[in-house]
Amino acid sequence: MKDGSHFNVWIVITGAPSSGKTTLLHELQQRGYPVVPESAREVLTSGEFDESLSDVQTLIEERQQAKEQLIPPDEVVVLDRALPDSMAYRRLGGMETSDLRALIRPERYATVFLCGFGEHIADGIRKDDTERAREIERLLREVYLELGCRVIELPWSLDADLAEGVAKRMALIEAALGGGGSNDFLEL
Length: 188
Known about the structure:
The chain is an alpha/beta fold. The protein has a single domain (10-179), classed as P-loop containing nucleotide triphosphate hydrolases (Rossmann fold, 3-Layer(aba) Sandwich), CATH 3.40.50. The protein has 7 helices and 5 strands; from the N terminus they run βαβααβααβαβα. The protein has a 5-stranded parallel β-sheet, sandwiched between helices. The longest helix has 17 residues, at 130-146. The N and C termini lie close together (11 Å).
């Protein structure tokens, strides 16, 4: 902490399904960055619920809120999605967001990296098609910008193979964070 006050050091990696988020997060973990797993993936892979159930969104939000409440505001972490993602998904479903907005502390998110959508790849968990994925990406951008978060776009590399595309995105992330390695988060 600087001067006894909290400063934002939570980094969010977000994006539409099939945007390469999971691959990037795996690479960040390999490089020693502490990663908080995605609540939606945990809920959807538990086998207890599927996306057609109306209370799934509530369960995802409750789990994400509990995770974020446990993280000290000055602890350096990478979040695989964050609570504002749920606002985007609520908007997608035409649901009210004001109650959720009241729970969100946008000042805690130092930087939001938005993975651009490239092509739909079925992952067996979500059933989003290309049109829906593009709308999710638009809503995620809209929500984080409305909250006043610093959003950095990580474009999809159509001309690169997977390894090269990940390397380009990692270079953008580490440049925005001040270099390589988890200690560089402290310079934000």
